[in-house]
Structures are given as structure tokens and as C-alpha cells.
Here is the input.
Amino acid sequence: MSLVKTILLGRPNGIRSKLRKVVGGGSRDVDTSPDSSYSAPRQDSRPAPAEQALGLHPEAPKDITPPEGYEVVLHKDALKPGKVVEIIIAGKAIAVANVDGEFHACTNSCPHADGPLGEGELDGSVLSCPYHGWRFDLSDGSCLTNADVTLKTFDVAIEKDAVCVRL
Here is the structure.
């Protein structure tokens, strides 16, 4: 039963759990009126609930023109060193990691069993899959668990305050 629960509801520390806590959670400020189907843009500087759940504040800059072929994925101060997060950009799920101020990006699916790498553990530049612990070096995508496997990585560029990824 616990496998079915995990499949349907996600892991206790996963993205779905964090979003569920924000959406259904206790005493937070409500930004829209209960009778409204549309709310005006926020006028304060508090992060939106989804940003709070993911720990992504400040939000990705909107006034940055990324280099050709790149997409702006987040603000460079939104992801603390030693952390990794899943980002959906241009219809793709990627994992973005901050390794001591240097950003790396890779596909979010572990090639072993499709584990969500954005929920994995980061140790230096080595990212471990939360499902079975396969370890990947983010600097080149090499798998430290199985030398025959590589992880798809993406080029990352910093433009002003934006982390940009070439997809």
C-alpha cells in the first residue's frame, strides 16, 4: 500500500508534498478573495505560495534577454549553494544545482529508474538519485555508480541575476 501511496501522493519531502502543504496548509495569508476566480497581480514582495514551497525566492528575472538558445530558469540568488531543485521549462523537467556558486543543469530523470534528480542529495558536484542512490558527477554527467551510463547535462550561463540553461 505504501508504494501506491508514494506513487499517488509523492514522497514526504518531494515537490508534491511541499505544494500540498502550501495549498492545503493551515494559517497562511490568502491572496485571493474566496468569491473571485481571478486575482490581480501581487503588490507585495512576499514570494508566491509555490515559490515558498520550493524555496525559490526571488523569482526568475523577467527583464533579462538570455543568450541565443538559452532559457531563463531562475534568479541566481534563489538557489542556495549545496541545493538542487526541479524546474519545468519549455515543457522539460530539469534539475538545477548550485555547487558552491557554480550552477549545473541536467535532465531531471535518472537514467536508471527515472528517479526525480531534483529531489536528490547534492554532495559537492555529485548528485544522488533519491530512488536508488545512483550518483552522477554534474560537471560532466558521468555516472559514478555505473560507468556505462551518462546523465544528459545542459550548458548554463549567468546573465546579470539570471541563471540561463541551453535546452
Q: What stands out?
A: The helical segments are 2-9, 15-24, 49-54. The mean pLDDT is 81. Residues 15-24 form the longest helix (10 residues).
